[in-house]
Amino acid sequence: MRILGIESSCDETGIAIYDDEKGLLAHQLYSQVKVHADYGGVVPELASRDHVRKTLPLIDAAFAQAGCGPEDLDGIAYTAGPGLVGALLVGTSIGRSLAYGWDIPAVAVHHMEGHLLAPMLEENTPEFPFIALLVSGGHTMMVKVAGIGQYEVLGESVDDAAGEAFDKTAKLLGLDYPGGPRLAKMAEQGVAKRFVFPRPMTDKPGLDFSFSGLKTAASITIRENDDDDQTKADIAHAFQTAVIDTLVIKCKRALKQTGIKRLVIAGGVSANTQLRLQLERVMKGMKGEVFYPRTEFCTDNGAMIAYAGMQRLKVGQFATLDMKTKPRWPIDSLEPI
Ligand code: KG4
Ligand code: ZN
Question: How many domains, in total, are found in the chain?
Answer without folding.
Answer: 2
